[in-house]
Write a structure and sequence with these properties.
Blueprint lengths: L3 E6 L5 H14 L4 E5 L5 H12 L4 H25 L3 E5 L2 H11 L4 H12 L6 E6 L2 H8 L13 H17 L4 E5 L4 H14 L1
Parallel strand pairs: 1-3, 1-4, 2-3, 4-5
Helix pairs in contact: 1-8, 2-3, 3-5, 4-7
The chain binds thymidine-5'-diphosphate.
């Protein structure tokens, strides 16, 4: 069984919609499943999330706070749950820092690799589901949302870079990635996820 599973993708890629059903399927199989998210997942992490999603800050500060929230999340939630034999599903993890702060904002990839090594060198997801959508689809889905956060208010070229950053991570870590075509109809995406679940 793959115990540490992360969901990634651009805003509007549909990952959150499918995450609960994915967790419910694993629970029905008898696994104890914890669903959590980043930035966030702990009381301190949720406070940092508020700042990260709504306040302007330098790119370095943004990356450091993302990893600070992650350090707390790993220490207080992820490691204890994995050690207790539970399955942890996180809505985003470090791949998002590479995609958004690295590729999106332009922060040096190697600096992020150093932060990653410092904060969780020996802990990587066993499986990452990357919901890939074009920037057009992502923006169409966000168009109905009137309460856009700091990242969602970014322009199209930012999201092109975010998407390219995810693709780079997929190439760097092909062994743990499943790429889901998030542009398909909901039931087609669900069928792709069922195939992944069947292989776990
Ligand atoms: P998300 O979890 O998708 O929340 P919602 O679905 O409620 O909008 O949004 C979190 C945002 O944070 C998202 O735009 C991506 C961004 N993010 C980063 O920039 N870096 C990170 O390391 C993480 C975890 C998230």
């Amino acid at each position: 069984m793959k115990n540490f599973i992360t969901f990634e993708g651009m805003d509007g890629a549909g990952k959150s919609t499918h995450l609960e059903r994915f967790a419910a399927t694993l629970r029905a199989r008898g696994h104890e499943v914890i669903v959590t998210r980043e930035p966030g997942g702990t009381p301190l992490g949720e406070q940092l999330r508020e700042m990260l999603l709504h306040q302007a800050m330098s790119m370095e500060t943004e990356a450091l706070l993302m990893f600070a929230a992650r350090a707390e999340h790993i220490a207080k939630v992820i490691r204890p749950a994995l050690n207790a034999g539970k399955v942890v599903i996180s809505d985003r993890f470090s791949d998002a820092s590479f995609a958004y702060q690295g590729s999106g904002r332009g922060m040096d990839w190697e600096k992020l690799q150093r932060l990653e090594a410092w904060v969780h060198h020996d802990l990587q997801p066993d499986l990452t589901l990357f919901f890939d959508v074009t920037v057009d689809v992502s923006r169409q889905r966000l168009a109905n949302n009137t309460m856009l956060d700091k990242f969602e208010q970014e322009k199209g070229d930012f999201f092109e870079r975010v998407r390219a950053g995810y693709h780079r991570r997929v190439l760097e870590h092909p062994e743990r990635y499943e790429v889901i075509d998030g542009g398909q109809a909901l039931d087609a995406v669900a069928a792709q996820l069922d195939a992944v679940l069947a292989s776990l």
